[in-house]
Request: fold
Amino acid sequence: MGTWWKIFLTGMVLVLGVIGLVTVESPSLVLWKPIRAVVLESDDWGFAGFIPHAEVWQKERREELNPGVFPEVYWESILEDSTMVSNLAGVMLAHKGSDGLPAVFQPNYVMSSLSYEKEGNEWIWRRYDWPNLPPTYSRPGLIASVQRAVEAGVWYPEFHATWHYDPAKRLQYALSTEMAERLTRQGVVLFPHSEKARELGPWRSISDLQQEFSHSAMLFERAFERPVGSIIAPDYTWDSRLETMWDDFGLFVIQAKREQRNPTLLSGKPGRIQKFIFRKIDILTHRNRVYLPRNCRLEPVQAPDAEVVVQNCIVETHSAWSAGQPAVVETHRVNFAHADPQIVLTGLSSLSEYLSVICDGSQPLPVFMVDTEVAQLQTRGVSWVVRGDRLILRNGTHTRRLIVVNHLDQQRIFAIGAQSTKTCIW
Reply:
């Protein structure tokens, strides 16, 4: 074989390798295009912050707190109440997919909070774990409202964070100025430099993070009566240490990999190139993990024109289906829980409009799923999930499959055939 021929073959191998690296995605045992799956992921639920109510800003020049940079709408982001959860559940119940089931909302929960409270003549820090809440964030009826939504099969919690900030940073800065201390006593969670006080920052030891996650996973299972199924890192900030830690806990479904802010990478364009390459390498080398990219964005209250956001999300949904992917929709809590009722109305109406369009009946209806269903279908071809009082079994293949269901310490085995039904509801 001549030298030039060897050079040509070597070049072709390199080109094919680059193409493979660029195009690689998490493998799947099902064809997603005909399924038209939709997943609604929403972060920050259960987070006792940013503020308990809008009145805390009435006599303050809030910018002087110097918490960092974030979208304007977050200044009045609040913990949800029972009405907000009930209204959102109502929107889900009003829209059904091709399997006859209502849309399902996946709120990703923050499990713990720190409250600065007066005890006798002293001020002390006190910890609260969901469903317990600080006194300044009292929400009568909230837990009952969440339970009703869970029982209706339209509310399927997953894990987001322990604190949504580095607790040591909050203890360090929350009382560092007169203004910060005054607001902290009123229940405001923002503090100087809080935007950079990332819960999973690289300065935090992995042993501390392991202990935190272990405790939080226990709290989650106790509150929602099932283990954590998927995870989304707070502020999209995490590094490879965290993915290895999640592996050790048996947690292999990771949301929003494409949006990851890896603090160990370079900044600017070199960092974006690094991020792209490392993400593809992670997909290739960690076949046990299911990375679920968010490919649709429904954040209407962060934009000047909510209608444009809705229409763009509809286009993104159809683009995901056309590309043979589930439509994974990002929509944060701030769209539905806010001190301004008009903001809440905009968020709810935008979500309702989005669901109405994709469920309008002039085209094949979507199938509403949660992360764990998508992950199981990708890796096994079949899935099971308990939503409310329903056991939902799906077969995304064209052959008969056994589904092993482990729930409430009992094991049940079901055989379902793709030639007869794709979805069974028990």
Q: What stands out?
A: The first strand starts at residue 37 and ends at 45. Confidence is low (pLDDT under 50) at residues 5-24, 417-421.
